[in-house]
Amino acid sequence: MGDQDLPGVLVSDLEGPHGICEDHAEDLKRHFNLITMQDFLENKAQLGPQIQAVYIWCGRPAVSQELLHSLPSLKIVASAGAGLDHLDLGLMASFGVKVANTPHAVSSPTADLGMALLLAAARRVVEGHQLAVSPHTETFPTDYMGQQVTGATLGIIGMGSIGYKIAQRARAFEMKIVYHNRKRRKLEEEEAVGAIYCERLDDLLQWSDFVMLAVSLTPQTQGLIGKRELRLMKPTAILVNIGRGLLVDQEALVEALQTGLIKAAALDVTYPEPLPRDHPLLELKNVILTPHIGSATHQARRQMMENLVESILASLSGLPIPNEVLLK
């Protein structure tokens, strides 16, 4: 714990794989008295009333009804990232607790990674690297082929801030862009990136050479891509997921990749994370996996931290909260 005169903020830990970014600790300590989950659990009676905010980093600490009952002074839960699937917004609202996240800080780096995965899968970059460095390689095969990106059709599922930034990047590759979204974008926004709205998801899946999942996980989108949807895709199509693992039926995806129903997949997210070490996705050559690193740049992570600090300070001062999440 730090300066007792500063507002108490609950964090998962100050170090380690489940803690806050160690590089951010000193900045946070200038504004807050950081109370770790372990310290809190060991002394709930004294520390509970001191905590005015919960600072969630990489999904921790989890905010349960039991925790909320233990924090009578809590004003805000500030969560890094854009996803909200780990938060029960209705529960927090029932306790009068505000919620904020950091959608703008993550949109550009996540879009960058989406395009990186698309390009890597299309041109078989990981396989190519393994071939180039293998001690068994004596010659390079002349029939080592990938899929062309320029002029191909990209179907974006989820045209929020991340999806739109993907469209901006894809336009530079002269891709044809179609998208499916809960709400259609304004005409001028579509025209700016050359995007065509698909009211029916089935149409997008049938038309696209690349399908990019950039949609939030909700009860309505869980299992959005299953056996039926994969069968609608072209046999040359590549699926890219930068949203959440549960958007995709992974058993159906494994079967589709093994049988050639689709060409390949590039996944920054799975369920669970990490996958069990014997999971079949880990063995397939036509799969690229990254460890949920959409926002993992030094610059983005610092902006996320700064955005969370701004939201907490605004809440404690009774000011409008930047990036407040409103219950719909």
From TrEMBL:
Annotated family: Belongs to the D-isomer specific 2-hydroxyacid dehydrogenase family.
Keyword Oxidoreductase: yes
PROSITE patterns linked to this entry: D_2_HYDROXYACID_DH_1, D_2_HYDROXYACID_DH_3
Chain ranges of the D-isomer specific 2-hydroxyacid dehydrogenase catalytic domain: 21-325
Full protein name: Glyoxylate reductase/hydroxypyruvate reductase
Protein's organism: Bos mutus grunniens
Pfam families: 2-Hacid_dh, 2-Hacid_dh_C
Keyword terms of this UniProt record: Oxidoreductase
Cellular component, GO annotation: cytosol
Domain D-isomer specific 2-hydroxyacid dehydrogenase NAD-binding: 115-294
Gene3D superfamilies for the chain: NAD(P)-binding Rossmann-like Domain
GO molecular function, one term: glyoxylate reductase (NADPH) activity
Coiled coil: none
